[in-house]
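Troubleshooting log. The previous run stalled partway through. Resubmitting the same three chains, unchanged.
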Amino acid sequence: MNYISIQDINSLSKWVKSALKIKKNPLKNQELGKNKTLGMLFFNPSLRTRLSTQKAAINLGMNVMVMNFTNEGWTLEFEDGAIMDSGASEHIKEAAEVVSQYCDIIAIRAFAGLADKEKDYAETVISGFLKYATVPIVNMESAVRHPMQSLADAITMEEYKTKHKPKVVLSWAPHPKALPQAVANSFVEMMQMQKDMDFVITHPEGYELSPEITKDCKIEYDQNKAFENADFVYVKNWSNFKDYGKVTNTDPNWTVTAEKMALTNNGKFMHCLPVRRNVIVSDEVLDGENSIVIQQANNRTYSAQLVLQKILKKL
Amino acid sequence: MNYISIQDINSLSKWVKSALKIKKNPLKNQELGKNKTLGMLFFNPSLRTRLSTQKAAINLGMNVMVMNFTNEGWTLEFEDGAIMDSGASEHIKEAAEVVSQYCDIIAIRAFAGLADKEKDYAETVISGFLKYATVPIVNMESAVRHPMQSLADAITMEEYKTKHKPKVVLSWAPHPKALPQAVANSFVEMMQMQKDMDFVITHPEGYELSPEITKDCKIEYDQNKAFENADFVYVKNWSNFKDYGKVTNTDPNWTVTAEKMALTNNGKFMHCLPVRRNVIVSDEVLDGENSIVIQQANNRTYSAQLVLQKILKKL
Amino acid sequence: MNYISIQDINSLSKWVKSALKIKKNPLKNQELGKNKTLGMLFFNPSLRTRLSTQKAAINLGMNVMVMNFTNEGWTLEFEDGAIMDSGASEHIKEAAEVVSQYCDIIAIRAFAGLADKEKDYAETVISGFLKYATVPIVNMESAVRHPMQSLADAITMEEYKTKHKPKVVLSWAPHPKALPQAVANSFVEMMQMQKDMDFVITHPEGYELSPEITKDCKIEYDQNKAFENADFVYVKNWSNFKDYGKVTNTDPNWTVTAEKMALTNNGKFMHCLPVRRNVIVSDEVLDGENSIVIQQANNRTYSAQLVLQKILKKL
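Second attempt completed without errors. Output:
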């Protein structure tokens, strides 16, 4: 069993229930991971994902080994048949096969490069590990997806929803740098698995996510209209998908403010963090009592722990 | 309970006694830290502090998670109300609150920038964590203080003192690079808590530490005179406090040599390390039998372990 | 007991047998390392060595502390009597003595600089630690040697040999960058301890390894002739020893191909990894059924575990 995409979840509602059980008693399964080793491979920086996944593994009694590829100056080749006479010193085939021998589970972070859409959306790194590793693979944010985040988001919404069929808005917001679409993509995929939620995506025209991800999700270009009666507002910047990886819009009118939140149904504010204050969202909203970003980050531990626990049980 | 400054110690003599007890039997409290996690956050490099604090945590049965902010390219915003449209990608508020959820204790290293005296002496980083974290904070060297070092220094002096009221000299020595005042500051604050020690600070004129730190400590600008009959000579470079963060003096006459040590009462040589040989101190002194720098470094483990143990008992 | 060179092994055949026993039951000695700490110091990047050595320590129940000197910007001075007024901030003497107090075993990686043959072959870094550390030292690849790799190589050959006296070839192959001679050197030293193996080294003229290492080993400048009837082909690039640290030959005719392997006695292909595909060796050979590079990497864990186990038993 791997955990690459939110679609690796057979029943989202059951998973969410299981995660909330883990949250009540996180040390219950300390024997499960005994003498099992989690290898955490980082091709990009990480704070929340690094610490929460490590904490989850510790809660399960696992050993953790961390490898920072970027800091180590270690680059991998992903092309089959490459003549490796420059650049990368090792092919993904050897790296994945070798690391599999030292670890029981491998967790990987490898962001989109945002230069080559096809390469990014082919999920070169995580696919390479999936192809060549001989142990389960966990996605700690790949080029296209961040499914441990989205599972944590689902857990958080379950905790904070106040009615049977809440309205959930995914809103784009401005950001000075080009960011991947991974968090938004996985959130959309997770929402498509929710049975009793109304979901709408709002962003400036031209900022459409991949249609293969959004499928028939409702898109509303008027942010104010989208926010009306929302129970959850999930905010995230992403760079342009069509004009790939470019920042073509930094319109401050899309910043989430108290005025905009006033349009909602006393809606909760969510963001995966890190968040740029007064760019993505105003201090007033982020520090307000309807902001649940800290609780959301806390659920990263239980999201990761559920994933590791499911995999450990199948080892 | 936090450990930010040596002034967080209620009774220095009792703490020193407790640390010496720990040193005799460091594994006695292995159950105390079971299932507790220490998060170590480094905004600057560390060798001794990193390894000794980690070792202390291990001795107490704790789990340790390490995050290197500098290497990760992760910078934090500390200003309230900042419009975060450039530079830092995360505010201390979120970072501190989030990491608090994954750790039972957070230890932080964040040196003085030496560019802005007010900002440094406001202890921006450690104060930010104190303000927003929801778990105890331990100072692994902040802009202004290094209280785990000073506690280790007190332990070491207790072990090596040969008379009731020893004379202790804190001596500046030259160094090619601008160094923070933190070690000297905390040493001064620790000496102010010592009941039976004569204390004198010696440095070139113009190299006064903050008067808010040194208060009424005796200052002697003649290094030779200061060394007379000293039982302990604690040597440390610091950059100029008045002409803030500048190196305005590299006078090799301040290097500690055997001739100077001959003026002391068979005095012990101390330094927090790392030390530049034949700049701060001559090989002869550092390698001599009165040098106790290695023993001093060893006590870093027991200093850290005492601090963690005190905090764990109050969790 | 230290493990610096393959010559620290008293009986290679006994060590290989012990390692194969460990491989069958790697968790048998989990009590041996309890409350013992391995300090892993990296002056250079590492993937296999880092993870396999850490895994070995975990298998033995040890605690592991990792310090990356390069990433931390920490450089050491190795010269006695140096006036340290620029460059390195700490002398090996203090660093080694201090770290010895926090660790029960210190493992070190410090590659050849390839600029100064005398300095490299004096093994400045590892010798400095040997001189000043007060705990056992393990070599995770020094300027001249990589004995944990060579022990893994011996274990692997024992597993895959099909006749009493196999023929083993060490073959140079081209590489775009200047690489150390350490792996080749240690392999040669290990082969000199093998009783029942025919050994030949092949490389272009001018690419002779240190004669103090190769002694009276057979050298064959014709790669094809060397490969004839070989049972194991161990391939590795190294930079020029005479014209020290230079790449004076990148002749693609030395790349190991299926045609060349056809000259062998159904020979196994070995390489320590990372390996540059289609430069050192063709895909066809590396992916072929006679390639045992992955199994070889797996044995790194048992090689390291045997070394640590031997040291732990003598602590």
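Takeaways: The CA atoms of residues 205 and 221 of chain B lie 6 Å apart. The mean pLDDT of chain B is 97.
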